[in-house]
Amino acid sequence: MLYVILAILIFGVLISTHELGHFASAKLLGVKVNEFAVGMGPAIIKRQKGETLYSLRAFPIGGYCAMEGEDDDSADPRSFSKAAGWKKLIILCAGAAMNFLTGVIIFLVIYAQFSAFTMPKISGIMEGYGLENCGLQAGDQVISVDGHRMYGYSNLSFFLSRAGDSVDWMVERDGERIVLKDVYMPLQEKTDEEGNTTYLRGLSVGVEVLPGTLGNKLLFGWYAALDNVRLVWISLGDLLSGAVGLRDLSGPVGIVDVMTEVGSNPEYSPTPLAAAINMANFAGLIAVNLAVMNLLPLPALDGGRVFFLVLNGILNALFKRKIDAKYEGYVHLAGLAMLMGLMLVVTFSDIGKLFGK
Q1: Coil, strand or helix: which one is 297?
Q2: How far is the C-alpha of 19 from the C-alpha of 134, rounded, in Å?
Q3: Which pLDDT score is estimated for 197?
Q4: Of 139, 149, 126, residue with least CA distance to 208
Q5: 43: closest CA among 64, 19, 17?
Q6: Torsion 266-267-273-279 (CA) sign
């Protein structure tokens, strides 16, 4: 139960952090904020300070920043609807920026305790795979595979598992970066005496150990955030291509369940410190995920509002006309209804998974 509560609180804090980005940027740019709330539902504590009502609400599952004229026209000169386009753009993107920054900070805190970091390197070429003249050599530090930068040791096996029969490589050898195009190395099955099957490309992969200096801690904290951004984009691509289905999606219920499992299962977290690190890693992933998802150009999301903002700017420059705010509101309302419907379906799916365990 402790990990369930922690998971819910972490999820709620990350959503509140998103709204804090909108709030802080609106205040800095002189846009009127009517209410800033932490949590949802009935208010437990409310306090009016100046023009803004600050509230703490009963359910720790998010929050909101209610700006004057955010969803309709307002005569107030300091309303969101009256703000300059560049101010609106900053305010709309500030929530995602705050989520991403939160993810970076979480990863920096995690990596602050690391004494070393590992990156993949080629330790040898296996016989019988036809790679003797492929250009790769033992000792080559892998920089990228098929254009995907290596941000950590596990990246190599992940991207090789998704690559085709021919792979583009960039490696560093004796301080020089070498590009090898279309190296033919198809996956081949190998079965050992015990009947276990592995899929190999004819490479032995070793480890390049980098010291845990302050510079490397900062660098790998940044790498972790970028790696998770890339993971979110890859997951979205898999969803659109049909490689994964609706059953593989998770909403708040599924996320809390996974975080609870990661934190409480001794197989994943044998010590309290390991549990804290695993929970923090998951929190960093969610923070980055929220940043990416909120900037998608979909109605009702910040990215959808940015899309209409840019579109209106183009229409105004070309034809001196804009889309009526009323119709834009209808589009966002329809998008919100569809997103809520999807969330409902995913939530029922998550609940079904819980009962199916």
Answers
A1: coil
A2: 52
A3: 58
A4: 139
A5: 64
A6: negative
Kind plus residue range of the DSSP H or E element containing 177: strand 176-184
What integer pLDDT is reported at residue 343 of this predicted model? 82
In the three-class reduction of DSSP (H, G, I as helix; E, B as strand; rest coil), residue 194 is classed as: coil
Closest by CA position to 342, among listed 296, 280, 308: 296
How many Cβ atoms sit within 10 Å of the Cβ of residue 315? 13
**Predicted local confidence at residue 315, as pLDDT:** 93
Angle at 254 between CA 249 and CA 260, to 5 degrees: 140
Paired residues of 119 in beta bridges: 208
Under a CB-based contact definition with an 8 Å cutoff, are residues 121 and 141 in contact?
Answer: yes
Rounded distance between C-alpha atoms, residue 208 and residue 152, angstroms: 10
Nearest to 278 by CA among 5, 6, 1: 6
Domain boundary assignment for the chain: 116-211
76 vs 83: CA distance, rounded Å: 10
Joined tokens for residue 9: 């609180």
User: Does pTM top 0.90 for this prediction?
Assistant: no
Q: State how far the Cα of 74 lies from the Cα of 72, in Å rounded to an integer.
A: 6
CATH architecture for the domain at 116-211: Roll (2.30)
Give CA–CA dist 167/125, Å, rounded.
15
C-alpha span between 14 and 262 (Å, rounded): 18
Contact 96, 21 (CB under 8 A): yes
Cβ atoms 132, 165 nearer than 8 A: no
Residues 212, 210, 270: CA angle, nearest 5 degrees = 65
Q: Where do the H-state alpha helices sit in 40-115?
A: 85-111
CA angle 256, 262, 265 (to 5 degrees): 120
Amino acid letter for position 29: L
C-alpha–C-alpha distance, residues 303 and 5, integer Å: 31
Both tokens of 81, joined, read 């609807």
Distance (Å, whole) CA 95 – CA 24: 9
Low-confidence ranges of the chain (pLDDT < 50): none
Looking at residue 140, its pLDDT comes to 94
Helix (H) or strand (E) holding 40: strand 33-49
Q: Which two tokens stand for residue 54?
A: 């600050």
Distance, in Å, from the CA atom of 178 to the CA atom of 170, rounded to the nearest integer, reads 6
Between strands 203-211 and 116-125, the pairing is: antiparallel
